[in-house]
Amino acid sequence: MNFHGILVPLVTPFKSDKNLDLETLKQLTKTFINKGVTGLVVCGTTGEYYALNEAERETVLKTVAEVAKGRVTLIAGINDLSTEGAVNRAKQAKDLGYEGLMLAPTPYSLPDQTGVIAHYETVAAATDLPIIMYNFPARIGIEIEYDTVVHLAENPNIVAIKESSGDFSRALRLLQTPFENFEVICGCDDQPVDFFFWGAKSWIAGAGNVFPEEQVAMFNAAQAGDWDKARQIMRDIYPAIYSMESGNYNQKAKLGCLKGEINVGTVRLPLSDLSEEEKAEFLVFFK
Questions:
Q1: Could you tell me which residues come within 8 angstroms of residue 181 by beta carbon, excluding any fewer than 6 positions away?
Q2: Among residues 35, 49, 162, 259, which one is catalytic?
Q3: Most buried of the four, 49, 113, 162, 178, by CB within 10 Å?
Q4: Considering only CA atoms, which of 166, 164, 153 is closest in space to residue 187?
């Protein structure tokens, strides 16, 4: 599985009645492929996986795979409230032709680190697909602690961690750890240049829905050692990214999709839509 480069955690388009908009999903998938991204993460947090029923989830996974399989790397988000549920979603992803999985600790239950280790090892034992761990304590409620990462990195089925804690001191410690066959992926939209400077080779960012070309160009500049260009691209897109990170992230990822050029609809409950004033304030970044 190639996950070096920009991987976009796809938004899930909805029609005005909040039903799935599959034609727009196909269009979006094709567009991101044409923009040069390495891969797509489907049914992740930015894709509002928690607001999809099981039939819709399967439809979304199938639709993206039909367009993208063999063209870019396909990763399925398999988060669930239980470990058993994550195992079932891993099997579904395999059946639908996905190449990798992204998995956070179980939300809401607040497991201790022993439980986190058992969660990942149980899923890893049930699939031969590579797993990217997802550390996002602001969403999940607990952190995958450093020693836990080191332990799980020894499992051959666990190949990386998407680091979204926002704590770059933690990220830097991980990036300087001499892992074997295990990588640290940037999961913070405002820190990619820092991650790339310290050797990260991947960025999974919801803002990729908004700035795919810019993020691909930033990654390529960093890989070429052109740090001035990488920093300049970050300066250019930072105001919008700062706004997204400041609140209503999913709403803004959808409103600003491809810099506001494609209508993917609004979010589903329990998220609420932006006010007209908030929409206008965000869209000004693309004028």
A1: 156, 159
A2: 162
A3: 162
A4: 164
pLDDT tens digits for 2-27? 999 999 999 999 999 999 999 999 99
Whether the full predicted model's pTM is greater than 0.90, yes or no, is: yes
Question: How far is C-alpha 157 from the geometric centre of its chain's CA atoms?
Answer: 19
* Structure confidence by residue, pLDDT tens digits, 69-85: 999 999 999 999 999 99
Catalytic residue status for 94? no
pLDDT at position 287: 79
The pLDDT averaged over each successive group of 10 residues in the chain (287 residues) is 96 97 98 97 97 97 97 98 98 97 96 98 98 96 97 98 96 97 96 97 96 97 97 97 95 95 95 95 92
238 is known as an active-site residue: no
Q: At what angle do helices 54-68 and 83-95 cross, to 10 degrees?
A: 40
- Convert the pLDDT of each residue in 106-118 to its tens digit: 999 999 999 999 9
Question: What is the spatial distance between Cα 197 and Cα 2, in angstroms, rounded to a whole number?
Answer: 20
Rounded to whole angstroms, the Cα distance separating 222 from 252 reads 26
Tokens 């993460």 locate to 41
Task: Spell out the domain ranges in the chain.
Answer: 5-286
Confirm or reject CATH 3.90.10.10 for domain 5-286, answering yes or no.
no
280: Cα separation from own chain's centroid = 26
**Inter-residue contact 77 to 43 (CB < 8 Å):** yes
Sequence-distant (≥ 6) Cβ neighbours of residue 252 within 8 angstroms: 210, 240, 243, 244, 274, 282
